[in-house]
Design brief:
The complex is a heterodimer of chains A (618) and B (263). Chain A is mainly α and 618 residues long. Chain A has 27 helices and six strands. Chain A has a two-stranded parallel sheet. In chain A, strands 2-3 form a two-stranded antiparallel ribbon. Chain A has a two-stranded antiparallel sheet with strand order 5-6. The chains are: A mainly alpha (618), B alpha/beta (263).
C-alpha cells in the first residue's frame, strides 16, 4: 500500500533496536485531526456524489454488501489502517505497535462514520436538493438502512469506530495474518468484480454448477462462496510468504539454455491461453477483452513515446484517428472522396504510410520543444487532426460530421471475415497486433535506438552531447508510436463499421496516458496490467467495463486513482524493476540519513550526501 | 611541434546579457597534451567547455578542431568529430544501468536502426555484441569499481566517486580524440584523487587521448599537467608549466586578491 507496508521496509524495521509501545494518549494529534477531517469530507463527498444510490444495485456479497455500501465502508478501513502507519527508517529505533494504534484507527474511523451520521440527520431535517442534486429520499433510504435516523446514526458511528479499530489492530497481528486478511478482502471483492467473466468462463469449461454455487442467482457472491474463497485465499496468502516473488527471481536468474527454454515455454503458454480463452467465453466477454486489447495496443504505442523517450504526448488520439480514417477511405464503398475499396490488409499498408507521414508532420515542429511546451502543442495537434476530419473543407474526403459508414470487415485471405458482429474474431485480430506491439517494444528497448530514447528521457542535453542525434531519435519515437496507434484505429474502423470525428475526442488521449502512467511507464507488462484494470474493470471512454454501474463515476474514479498512484506509487502498478529507486519520499529521507551518518567516517559518502541534497534543491 | 594544434580557439567571445563570460580567448591544445585550465570561480572555465562541446554558441570567434572549424555544429556532431566531455555536476543517465550508460554513448559510432532491431539481423546482433564488449572494456579501465554486479545497477545507486568514474567512462565510450574533464576529482578523498590522477595520465599514454581538464585540486594539476592555463574574467592571464604559473604574480592576485595599497 505504501512504502511503509512494503515487506522489505518491515524486514529492515525488524533489525532496528526496538522500543516499547507508547501510551494510548501519546497520539500525533495534528495528524489524527487532519485525517479525521479528510475522512469526513471524503465520505460526505462520496455520499453526495450519488454513488451509494447508483451503485446499490450491484451486489458484492448477497445479501449483506452492495457496491454502494462498499463505497462508504472502505474509507474508514483504509484510513484506520493508515492512522497507525509510521515511516520506518533503517537503523532508527522503532516503537512497538500497541493499543495506541488501535485507538488512532478508531478515532479516524469515527470521523468518517460520524460524517455519514450527520448527513443522515441533515437529510432527515432539511431539503437541500436545490444545489445538491442527489439530496433526496433515495439517499436517505440507503444511508438510513430504511430505518429510523437514530438507528442509522448509531450504526454509522459504530461501523466507523469498529472498522477503524479493526484496521488499526492489523498493526498488532503478525505479518502472515495481516497478509492473509488483506488477501481475503482483495480476493472476495475481486471475485465479485470479475463475476461476469468467471461465470462465462466456467460455463465454457463445463463448470457452470460450481459457478452457480459461488455466485448468487441475482448477482454477487453467495454467502458460502464468499466464505470458501476467503478461506482459500487466506490460507494461501498466510502460508505462501513471498513464494511468487521467489519463483520470479529464480526464473530471472536462470542462465544459458535453461533460461531460453523457460522463456520459450512461458511465451508458448501465454500464446496457448490467448488462443484458447476466446473459445471458452461468450460474446460479451470477448467484446470486453477486445476493447481492452485495443487500449493495450494504443497504450503500448504511447508507452514508446512517453515511457521510453519521455516525450509527453497529449494528442496521441490523432494517430488513432488517422488509422481509422485511412481504413475507412481505402476500404469503404461509401467513402465520399476516393473509394478504391481495397481489402483491409492492403489498406494497412496505406495506414502505415499515413501514420508515418502524420508522425513526421506533427513530430517535426513539436520535438524541438521540451517539457510543458511540448505537451501543450501535442494537445493542440490532437484536436487539430480531429477538427480537420470534422471540417467542411475536407468533408468531400472524410464526410465531415456524417463520417464514413459501411466500412467492410477484415477478410483474412478469404478464410474468415472479422467484423464487429463477431467479437471473438475481433479479439483474435487485436491480439495479433498486440503481440506485434509487444515484440516491437521488447526489441526496440534493447537496441541502440531504445537506449538513445532512454538517455533522452533522462537528460536530453547530455544525450545530445554523448552523440545522440536527439532530433532524429525523438522523431523516430514519434513515428513508431504513431504506427502502433494507427493499427488500433484501423481495427476500430473495421470493428465498428463506421467512423465519425466524435469517436476521437481528446478524452481518449487522456485515458491512454492514464493507462500508461497507472500501469507503469516504460514497462510492457505494467501497461497491459493498467489497461486491464482501468479499461477492463472501470471501462474505457465509451466502452463499459466489468463495473458497468460505475460508468457515471468512471472519470471521478480515474482521477482519484491517478492522484493516489502519484502519491503512493509513482512508478505505477508494475514498476520497472531497478529503475525507480529514487521515487519514494521515505527512501529519500532514509538515504539522506544514512549518508549523513556515513559522512562521519568516510569523506566520499559525505560529499555524496551534500551533492545529492544540492541536486535536489535545484 | 609545428603541426596545427588539435584544438584551437581564435578570438572566442561569449556574452550573457551584459556579462562577458569569455573575451577574445585564444586557446590551443597540441595533440597528446594534458592541459589543465584553472582559475577562480566564474572565470569562464566551464563556459569554455560548453562552447567547445557546442552546448552554448559563441558570440564571436572560431573553434577549430583537427584543422577545421566546428562552429555551428550540433553537440552530437561535435561528439562524432571526436570531442567528449564530462560534467562538473555529474549528469549520468540515472535510471539506466552502468553498462547502458556506456553503451548509449557509442551511439554516434554505430549504425543499426529500427529495422535491424526488429528483424534481429545478424549485423544487429554483431553490432550489439561489439557495443557491449567495448562498454566492458571502457568500464574495466577503472579496475573492478564499475564491473561485476555493478554493471546492471542503475547509475543512481553508485557512490559519488563511482559516478565521477562512470562519467569519464561514458565520455571514453564515445571514442574521442580529445576529452574534456570538468573537475574530475571534485568530492573525492585524497587517495581516490591520486588514483584518478594516474588514470588521467593513462588516458593519454594508453588510450592516446588528448586531455583538457578543469580542476581546483592543485595537487592533481601539479601531478598530471603538461601545461597549465589560467583564466580570469574570461581572459587568459597566464600559461606555462605548473611551476611557472604557481609563482606568477598575476595568478596569485587573481586567486588571493591584491594587497590593499596604503594611502
Amino acid at each position: 500500500m505504501t512504502a511503509v507496508t512494503d515487506p522489505t521496509a518491515r524486514a529492515a524495521g525488524a533489525d532496528n533496536p526496538g522500543l516499547g509501545a507508547r501510551p494510548v494518549g501519546d497520539q500525533p494529534w495534528r495528524r489524527i485531526s487532519g485525517m479525521v477531517a479528510i475522512g469526513a469530507l471524503a465520505q460526505m463527498f462520496i455520499a453526495l456524489s450519488g454513488m451509494p444510490v447508483g451503485l446499490d444495485d450491484r451486489t458484492i456479497i448477497e445479501p449483506v454488501l452492495s457496491l454502494g455500501y462498499l463505497g462508504l465502508v472502505w474509507l474508514p478501513l483504509l484510513m484506520g489502517y493508515r492512522a497507525g502507519c509510521e515511516p520506518v527508517l533503517e537503523g532508527m529505533p522503532v516503537h512497538a505497535k500497541g493499543r495506541r494504534e488501535v485507538v488512532a484507527g478508531a478515532l479516524v474511523g469515527i470521523g468518517a462514520g460520524a460524517s455519514i451520521s450527520i448527513l443522515v440527520l441533515l437529510l432527515h431535517n432539511f431539503d437541500l436538493r436545490d444545489p445538491l442534486v442527489n439530496w433526496g429520499p433515495q439517499l436517505a433510504e440507503v444511508l438510513g438502512f430504511g430505518r429510523s435516523p437514530g438507528f442509522a446514526v448509531i450504526i454509522w458511528i459504530a461501523i466507523g469506530a469498529g472498522g477503524g479499530a479493526a484496521a488499526g489492530s492489523l498493526h498488532l497481528v503478525p505479518s502472515p495474518i495481516r497478509r492473509a486478511v488483506i488477501a481475503m478482502a482483495a480476493t472476495v471483492i475481486g471475485a465479485a468484480v470479475i463475476e461476469r467473466v468467471v461465470t462465462d468462463l466456467a460455463g465454457g469449461l463445463g463448470l457452470g454448477t460450481a459457478a452457480d454455487r459461488l455466485y448468487a442467482p441475482r448477482g454477487g457472491l453467495s454467502w458460502p462462496g464468499a466464505v470458501a474463497l476467503a478461506a482459500v485465499s487466506g490460507i494461501a496468502a498466510g502460508s505462501g510468504r513471498g513464494r511468487i516473488s521467489r519463483t520470479r527471481t529464480r526464473i530471472q536468474t536462470l542462465e544459458g539454455t535453461t533460461r531460453t527454454v523457460t522463456n520459450a515455454a512461458l511465451v508458448v503458454a501465454a500464446g496457448l491461453v490467448a488462443v484458447v480463452l476466446p473459445l471458452l467465453v461468450g460474446k460479451i466477454t470477448n467484446e470486453l477483452l477486445a476493447n481492452v486489447g485495443m487500449f493495450v495496443l494504443l497504450a503500448l504505442g504511447l508507452n514508446i513515446v512517453v515511457g521510453l523517450a519521455g516525450i509527453l504526448d497529449l494528442g496521441y488520439v490523432a494517430f488513432y484517428a488517422v488509422g481509422g480514417y485511412t481504413v475507412a477511405v481505402l476500404t469503404a464503398s461509401a467513402s465520399p472522396g476516393i473509394a478504391p475499396e481495397l481489402p483491409w490488409l492492403a489498406a494497412l499498408v496505406g495506414v502505415v504510410v499515413m501514420a508515418v507521414l502524420t508522425g513526421l508532420f506533427i513530430g517535426a515542429p513539436v520535438i524541438r520543444m521540451r517539457g510543458d511546451y511540448l505537451a501543450i502543442v501535442t494537445l493542440g495537434f490532437g484536436e487539430i487532426i480531429r477538427l480537420l476530419f470534422l471540417s467542411d473543407w475536407l468533408s468531400g474526403w472524410f464526410g465531415g460530421a456524417q463520417g464514413i459508414t459501411n466500412i467492410p470487415g477484415v477478410q483474412v485471405f478469404g478464410l474468415a471475415t472479422v467484423k464487429g458482429t463477431d467479437p471473438r474474431a475481433v479479439l483474435y485480430l487485436v491480439m495479433v497486433f498486440c503481440a506485434l506491439a509487444v515484440y516491437v517494444s521488447w526489441r526496440l528497448e534493447r537496441s541502440r535506438l531504445g537506449r538513445a530514447w532512454m538517455a533522452i528521457r533522462e537528460d536530453e542535453s547530455v544525450a545530445e552531447v554523448m552523440g545522440v542525434n536527439t532530433v532524429n531519435a525523438k522523431l523516430l519515437a514519434f513515428v513508431v508510436g504513431a504506427v502502433l496507434g494507427s493499427f488500433s484505429g484501423a481495427i476500430f474502423a473495421a470493428k465498428v463499421g463506421s467512423i465519425f470525428p466524435s469517436s476521437f475526442l481528446i478524452l481518449i488521449s487522456i485515458i491512454i496516458l492514464v493507462v500508461v502512467i497507472f500501469g507503469g511507464m516504460g514497462n510492457v507488462v505494467g501497461v497491459i496490467a493498467g489497461a486491464v484494470v482501468l479499461v477492463g474493470v472501470l471501462g474505457g471512454p465509451r466502452q463499459p467495463g466489468l463495473l458497468q454501474e460505475l460508468s457515471e463515476y468512471k472519470l471521478l474514479v480515474y482521477g482519484a486513482l491517478l492522484v493516489w498512484m502519484m502519491i503512493q506509487r509513482p512508478e505505477g502498478l508494475v514498476p520497472n524493476v531497478g529503475r525507480n529507486r529514487e521515487l519514494h519520499p521515505d527512501e529519500f529521507r532514509q538515504d539522506a540519513w544514512l549518508r549523513g551518518r556515513a559522512s562521519c567516517g568516510e569523506h566520499d559518502k559525505g560529499a555524496n550526501a551534500a551533492d545529492d541534497s544540492e541536486a535536489r534543491r535545484r | 611541434m609545428n603541426s596545427e594544434p588539435i584544438l584551437q580557439t581564435r578570438n572566442l567571445s561569449v556574452t550573457f546579457g551584459g556579462l562577458k563570460a569569455l573575451a577574445d580567448l585564444d586557446f590551443a591544445v597540441e595533440k597528446g597534451e594534458i592541459v589543465s585550465v584553472i582559475g577562480p570561480n566564474g572565470a569562464g572555465k566551464t563556459t569554455l567547455f560548453n562552447l567547445i562541446s557546442a552546448m552554448t554558441a559563441p558570440s564571436s570567434g572560431d573553434i577549430r578542431f583537427e584543422g577545421s572549424s566546428i562552429l555551428g555544429l550540433d553537440p552530437n556532431q561535435v561528439t562524432a568529430r571526436g570531442i567528449a566531455r564530462t560534467f562538473q555536476n555529474v549528469r549520468l543517465f540515472a535510471k539506466m544501468t552502468v553498462l547502458e550508460n556506456v553503451m548509449v554513448a557509442q551511439h554516434c559510432r554505430t549504425r543499426q536502426g529500427v529495422l535491424g532491431a526488429l528483424l534481429y539481423t545478424r549485423a544487429f546482433r554483431r553490432e550489439e555484441a561489439e557495443i557491449r564488449a567495448y562498454g566492458h572494456e571502457v568500464l574495466s579501465f577503472f579496475g573492478s569499481r564499475l564491473t561485476g554486479y555493478r554493471l546492471d545497477q542503475p547509475a543512481s545507486v553508485l557512490s559519488y566517486a563511482n559516478r565521477r568514474r562512470l562519467e569519464i567512462a561514458r565520455a571514453m565510450a564515445t571514442r574521442p580524440e580529445l576529452i574534456l574533464l570538468d573537475e574530475p576529482v571534485a568530492g573525492m578523498n585524497p587517495v581516490e584523487s591520486a588514483q584518478l590522477t594516474e588514470l588521467i595520465a593513462r588516458l593519454r599514454d594508453e588510450w592516446g587521448l588528448t586531455v583538457v581538464l578543469i580542476e581546483h585540486d592543485m595537487s592533481v594539476v601539479r601531478d598530471v599537467s603538461d601545461r597549465v592555463v589560467v583564466l580570469d574574467h574570461g581572459e587568459t592571464i597566464a600559461g606555462g608549466s605548473y611551476r611557472d604559473v604557481s609563482t606568477d604574480p598575476a595568478v596569485i592576485e587573481a586567486y588571493l586578491g591584491r594587497r590593499a595599497e596604503s594611502p
